[in-house]
Amino acid sequence: MCQIYAYEPGTNLLDSRRDGVVRWGQSVNHENGCHPSYNYFCPGDLDDKDQCNYTLAGCAAVAMAQIMYKWGYPEKSKYNSYDWDKIPPVLTDGCSDDCPQLIRDCGEACNMHYQTFAGIHITGSWAIPSNVAKGFADFDYGAYLHDLKDWRFGSAWADLIRSEIDCGRPVLMHGQKNVIDIKDRHYFVIDGYSMYDNNLFHVNWGWNGGGNGYYDLQSCGYSNGQDIIVGIAPKHTGTPHARITYSKITGLLTPKCPDGINDRVRYMVDNADSYECHVYDRSGKK
User: Fold this and answer.
1) CA distances from 218 to 148, 177, 189, 199 (A)
2) Which domains does the chain have, with CATH numbers?
3) pTM for the whole structure
């Protein structure tokens, strides 16, 4: 039998949609410009020209949007339509405004608070984890929130994250530097793990590419009060399942991959005179 993964260690799921490394942010684009910026459709903030005179887009909205970019879904939500071919891995002057529109729609879906807390102006935009998880439903995605305090045994927390990645699903994590100060909280995407040490996870911080790399999640700087949103994948069925590619085939069949898969299975065999591969669905049908 074959072990079939939607992921190859050492690669990054967010970069699988097209050539190029996904490096989105919360304000200026990658030319330090504003036409458009990532926060182009966010509420105005005329006192902050460093942010293109708009409030920050919010790390939760950027993380949500980057994950949806990986899937290239939906074509339409209750907010807007999306032309995924016009959305680039890196935003520059002259790009279409589809990317910032998607980010603003994600902010709407998760009830983003744009640089305010209890009526007081703050430096960042924020949302609560449960609203972020619920927000995916507005785009026809499944998503489930887990709290670290419910997983404090052995390696189960890391195992859960790895199992999601193995099935081709990026994980959205929320963590805190300080358990009290809201300014020290952040949402980011875990989209891979190292081929040399599977306890080192690849993090896309949503800071225009700044700091992206492999981290131990227990010492990544946002290790307190961690929550993760898992199962993030389109609910739709009957169409190819968002460009998942399966490779590195060894061992036993891996369960818990997304529902509604209608896709090709690609596999490799090295140093073998003969081989067999059998694929079954959850009901046992071959």
Assistant:
1) 11, 11, 15, 10
2) 13-234 (3.90.70.50)
3) 0.81
